[in-house]
Amino acid sequence: MRIAFIGLGTMGMPMAQCLRHAGYDVAGWDVTSAARARVDFCPDNLEEALQGADAIVTMLPAGADVEAVLTPDRLSTLPEGRLLIDCSTIDVETTRRLAELAGEHEHMILDAPVSGGAEGAGKGVLSFMVGGKADAFERARPLLEVMGSKLAHFGPSGTGQAAKACHNMICGITALGVCEAFALADGLGLDPDKFFKLCRGAAAQSWVLENRCPVPGPAADAPSSNGYAPGFAARLMAKDLGLAQEAAQACGQETPFGAQAAERFAAFAQGDDGNLDFSAIYKTILKR
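^ thats the sequence. predicted structure below, dont judge the formating
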C-alpha cells in the first residue's frame, strides 16, 4: 500500500516513520523545506506525493490547512475509493464538510485526532479518537494500529474531533490544577520531589502529572526538566481549548472551567511562550 503523509511536524514525522518502519511505501510532504529536508521520502511537490496513493494521511495545524490539501479539484481527480485519514485536531464543522465532499467523490474519510504527544508518536503508542463510517474504520485499522495502541471509534464523521475536544479540555483543566498545587506546595515549603512521588502514587495521579510535572527536577524526562521543550506546545493547547469552547457553544453546554482554561492558555500562548510546552504555564502561576 502506498501512503501519502502530509504534515511532517513534531507529530507527523514520527508517525510517518512508524509506517515506513512497518513496511509501507510512504511519500511525505510538508509546506516547510526544513521538514522536507530531514527525510529522504519527500518528492518534489505535493501532487507527486499524492500520485498513486491508496491512503492519504493529514497531520496539519488547522482546518484551513486540511482543506487546502483536500480540495474539491484534488478529490475529483483522485481515483475513486481512496482512504483519507485526517489526524489533525480541527473543528467539527470543517470535519463534516470535508466528509460530505469526500463522499461526493466516492472516497472514504475518517477524522482521527490523536493523544500521546511526540513521545507516543515516536513509539507508535498514540491513542486515536475516530469518527467516520465503520467500513472506513476497519479499512484504516491496520495503519492506525501501527501508529497507535488505543483505537476508539465513536461514530459518524465529526465524533472523533468531538472526543478530542472533550479530552483536551480535561487535559487543560487538569494542567492548571497540577500547576496550582505545585505552586502552593512551593509556597508552603514542601520538597517538590517528595510531593511529586506522593501524588503519582495517590488519588492525585494523572497523565498530566506523570508526563508534564511542571517543576524542573522531579521528573527527569518531563519538558520542565528540559527547558520546557515542547512535547505539546502551549499554542496547540490554546487552539484545542478554543475548539472545545466552540463545540460547547454549538451544543449549548456551559463549561466554566473549560472556558477559564481556554482563556488562561490563550493569554500564555501569545508570543514566544506559545512555542514552549504547555506545562510552562506554571511559570505564570508560581509566585516568589
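The mean pLDDT is 96.
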